[in-house]
Amino acid sequence: xxxxxxxxxxxxxxxxxxxxxxxxxxxxxxxxxxxxxxxxxxxxxxxxxxxxxxxxxxxxxxxxxxxxxxxxxxx
Length: 75
What we know:
Number of strands: 2
Order of helices and strands: HHEEH
Strand order of the largest sheet: 1-2
Radius of gyration: 22 Å
Helix content: 40-55%
Shape: elongated
């Protein structure tokens, strides 16, 4: 597949897909010498993202406000 098909599949722009391929963030195969054309295999892209999802730890979010002890209000 070319970058346009992969971009539609991933919801990215074709330019971003090529940038990710150049940075080895996506599995891709360069074709040509000076002006490279990139080709992608959907099976490798799916495997890349599924393996990446398995490696990541569950997301944790830091509290916006540090935890403090509550004060008792005397009314």
